[in-house]
Amino acid sequence: MEVLMRTMFQSLGKNHSMNKLAKKYGLRMGAARFVAGDSTESAIQTSKELNNSGKVVTLDHLGEFVFTEEEARLSTAMCIQTLEAIAESGVQSNLSLKMTSLGLDISKELCMENMRRILHTARMNNIFVRIDMEDYLHCQISLDMYKELRKEFDNVGIVIQAYLYRTEQDMNDLHQYQANLRLVKGAYKESPEVSFPEKKDVDENYKKIIKMHLLNGHYTAVASHDEEMIQYTKRLVRENGISNDQFEFQMLYGICVELQDRLVKEGYKVRVYVPYGIDWFGYFMRRLAERPANVWFVLKNFAK
Ligand code: FDA
């Protein structure tokens, strides 16, 4: 049953008509628990509140299904606007983005041009930019582009997914780039030809890559709500004398807030991933797919 629901939400998230419908009707169906509103103002307000509770932020202007050059440029302009709002408001936040929303499926050149514009503005404002990792089809090209950009910019990082078989090799290749990595388990529906089908293997690989990256001395963002992974990281840094400024924990807005607060109290750096914008549907479906129990939360909201 759970597998069925997961597959259903993953497919819905990719459905263009459903996305259009959701855009038209605004933030409903309980999505506001996971998305910080439609506008830049609401994203900055949420960031301020999170900063006041001791957490730093990464803002993500949601933009999925970009098919034209014009849409890609609009999405780039929104990222730049977000960077300017971060700088003006003084909130402690960096930026996360998806390269498909900057035209990756249209042409690599267009996407590189847009990435350079964003990274340039970010560098002028001393803001770090993280490239989210999307589905397997985009993995190789995302890594290739990251490596190219990394030679020009210090303020760029990327994400690595533990569920892929190729991940250990990718980590070895990234070693020479001193990459600032966000490590995640992986959120997309991938085939068993490219990814571990069993959760226990994903978890094992996740621990392996956390250890690899931290012991290699590179900055590591452990992005997980899994207490076992968090305990593992705490133990690892303690046993190896790794200082608190070489890593941070990251969690999604609205998820495991008590755990976030506990980590802040214990003195760890906690960054909250805050998505915002009218293109919230695909993001919301991925969160439901991760945890079908969230559906009860959504149904309760409908009933209110
Ligand atoms: P796991 O799925 O094992 O869950 C552990 C526990 O966490 C659950 O038992 C539950 O208590 C809680 N939990 C997890 N997900 C929840 C949810 N949706 N709602 C409520 N509780 C939940 N993926 C990707 O492919 N590319 C990317 O760029 C990113 N970026 C990213 C940034 C950040 C900051 C985070 C935290 C995650 C991502 N992800 C991602 C998503 C990631 O790959 C993964 O799908 C989710 O984090 C869920 O996996 P966990 O590690 O939390 O563990």
Mind explaining what this structure looks like?
There is one protein chain. The protein has 3 domains: 1-33, no CATH class; 37-125, no CATH class; 133-258, TIM Barrel (Alpha-Beta Barrel), CATH 3.20.20.220. It contains 12 helices and 8 strands. It has helices at 2-13, 16-25, 40-52, 69-89, 108-124, 139-152, 167-174, 199-215, 227-239, 257-265, 281-290, 294-303; strands at 56-61, 93-97, 129-131, 156-161, 181-184, 220-223, 247-252, 270-276. The protein has an 8-stranded parallel β-barrel, surrounded by 8 helices. Helix 4 (69-89) links the parallel strand 1 (56-61) and strand 2. The longest helix has 21 residues, at 69-89. The structure holds dihydroflavine-adenine dinucleotide. Residues 132-133, 159, 161, 184-188, 223-226, 250-252, 255-256, 273, 287, 290-291, 294 line the site of dihydroflavine-adenine dinucleotide. The site of dihydroflavine-adenine dinucleotide (FDA) has 23 residues, from strand 4, strand 7 and helix 11. One of its GO terms (molecular function) is nucleotide binding. Keywords: FAD, Flavoprotein, Nucleotide-binding, Oxidoreductase, Proline metabolism.
Question: Which key terms come to mind for this protein?
Answer:
304 residues; alpha/beta; TIM Barrel; 3 domains; eight-stranded parallel barrel; 51% helix; binds dihydroflavine-adenine dinucleotide; EC 1.5.5.2; FAD-linked_oxidoreductase-like; nucleotide binding; proline dehydrogenase activity; proline metabolism
